[in-house]
Amino acid sequence: MADLPLDPAELQRAGLRLDVDGAVATISLARPERRNALTFSTWHTLARIGETLPETVRVVVVRGDGPSFSAGIDLRLFSPEGVPGEDTSGPRDEEFIAGLQAGYLWLRRPDIVSIAAVQGHAIGGGFQLALSCDLRVVADDVKFAMKEPALGIVPDLTGTKPLVDIVGVPRALEICLTTRTVFAEEAARLGLAELVVPAAELDSAVADLVAAILQVPPATAAATKRLIRQAPHNTLEEQAAAERREQVPLLGDPAGASPAS
Ligand code: ACO
Question: In the beta sheet, which residues pair with residue 103?
Fold first, then answer.
């Protein structure tokens, strides 16, 4: 295990655990007694994990302890009592929300592949955390729900874009405005899960996926992710040009050097 870039006490305050083992970082939501409810510290610390991630890391797994991946925002943050240790006095302006969003946005970086391992409930900010990852492996008891509109707010933790990209505008609107639950079979059908497995097999299924991804050389994986991510926004001609740009450096020196890795 590498030395952790973050103070374990800071992680604990945020309800998180971080394990870095060579090329794989595992972020665990670690407040199962509260169903891994998320606080402002959780989002700020997730951003710090992204900023300080060792360069060796190529795959980031985001998982949750206990029966639920995450019950979303800690609802006590909306109460006058708040959450002990959490500063709820500041303005709720766009800069404040950007600071929370930073906790999720880095999971799309091209130098890593992020995988959400989701069991049980993934609600609101928990659903959006799963959506922030490149891939989702889910247990057959998964329950996704975007509850924000029921609380009078919009989903603002970067989840609306991936949700629409995956399920399309009408279905995303219906899921958000009904705040209903999406169960495993539908999640797989809609593309919200790459893989559905029995709950007891979630960890091993994720480990198999991680091992497969790590077989691809790092530079190739990063180039492929850049390429695939931009494809929906490009014309065919633009995408063909992007393929050429990414491929040439990977082909290496024609005089015999092996392709870049
Ligand atoms: N915030 C704070 N505490 C929570 C939260 C939450 N979001 N979710 C669960 N907890 C606490 C419960 O209050 C309970 O505490 P207690 O033991 O002190 O009574 C403990 O976690 C266990 O919760 P249960 O409800 O008993 O667990 P169960 O497994 O039966 O249900 C479920 C889990 C479905 C997730 C339920 O707790 C729930 O509906 N939570 C609220 C979900 C929600 O609306 N989140 C906000 C989404 S919007 C957003 O994220 C922006």
Answer: none
